[in-house]
Amino acid sequence: MGSIYYQVIHGRMVRQISTNYKILSSEWNQQEEYIVDPRSSQNRFSILRNTWEKIKWDQERLHKIIASLDKRPTGYTADEIVFQFHQNAKEQSLFTFMQYIIKQLKLQDLSYDTSLDFARDMFLFSFYTRGMSFIDMAYLKKKDLHNEVLIYRRRKTGQQLFIRWEKCMQDIVDKYGPTPTEYLLPIIQHHKEELKQYRNALHLINHKLRKISKILELPSHITMYVARHSWASIAKSQNIPIGVISEGMGHNSESTTRIYLASLDNSIIDKANRMIINKI
To answer: Which residue has the higher pLDDT, 260 or 145?
Structure first.
């Protein structure tokens, strides 16, 4: 087992950038310089694919740094490339990090485990619907969706929200087919002890998301709350006004802000949500 490192050569100077990406010699094509899969297990295959995605991400950052330094009239050194790479890593925005996580979640083949697959889909559905809380997802009704608009009230605040229905949302609903109840998603399966079903589902999904986090080798575990928090954080990093974010998530606020939020056109929020979805 060895570690991947990047070699920077510029102006007759040679520098190395170390990584914590570990692979076997049989998993690396030295001539073509890319990771190969020597018929490994499903779990190892996932790790290798995630490692390759990280390498490509690092390469893209290096190319951008070098392209920026090339514009300097005074030139630069290999040490500056290495310094900016490490500095850039520290300054990576939550948007870039979550963009990577969402992309990996979408690409990950979890068909071998339906419970992992379902947990991933519920996480993505929450993210796609502006960080909808899991309890609101559980109690969404089929009648709440009409004319490509999802209309529901937050159970926590009673605030009514309007969300333009996007294809990625419909794909998840279609994947699980019509539910046996009036609810849109297969979280509450019958009318007996509905709240208990919701709590059990949330516990199980968060448990499965922790397993997915390990498969993707994420630095920290993801939960359903992370999906909600991530939408707000990414929206903020994209310079979407705080007022639009608050309205989009159905947050309560100070009275003066509430008056301002009430005047927001819902189409602005839908546009913000579509921009975020298209970014990942």
So the answer is: 145
